[in-house]
Amino acid sequence: MKKQTLLHLHKRKRACLLLPAIVFCSSLAGAALAQDAGEQLFLNNCAECHQRDGKGIPNIYPALAGSEVVDGSGVDVALVMLIGRGEMPSFAGSIADEDMASIINYVRNAWGNNGEEISAQRIEKLR
Questions:
Q1: How much is the average pLDDT of 75-96?
Q2: CATH 1.10.8.50 fits domain 34-126
Q3: 61 has which bridge partners?
Q4: Which one has a higher pLDDT value, 57 or 6?
């Protein structure tokens, strides 16, 4: 009887240690999926002008890699996407808030950029 109780306690202890690891890995997987979604949305909507590598086309479309605007505030990037700027059209009517957040978060953390994330709720408030 004692042996079964000890075995049961040992299994519970292992399960208690395993659960946080599973949760942590799930959150990493979720972040990776969000990054992949942002990259795919970027490729579908932005890469034609800003290029896959974020370097743009000199004297035509600005680089996003190392851009002061991109490195600045996520709100500034969102406003450019919502309002448009120069040759860039407004995406307010064609890209949902969640997708726009995914694109912005991808761009602000790709090609050596390092920016804080912006939420879809924040973009909704900017509209």
A1: 96
A2: no
A3: 57
A4: 57
Altogether, the residues listed in the chain come to a count of 127
Residue keyed to tokens 């505030």: 73
Domain-wise residue ranges, the chain: 34-126
Which two three-digit tokens encode residue 70? 């991109």
Single-letter amino acid, residue 32? A
Is the pTM here over 0.85, yes or no?
no
Helices 97-107 and 74-83 pack at an angle, to 10 degrees, of 130
Angle between helices 97-107 and 2-45 (to 10 degrees): 90
Tell me the HSE value of 42 on the side-chain side, using a 13 A CA sphere. Answer: 24
Residue 2 identity (one-letter amino acid) = K
For the record, the structure tokens of 112 come out as 């050596």
What CA–CA distance (Å, rounded) separates 62 from 92?
A: 20
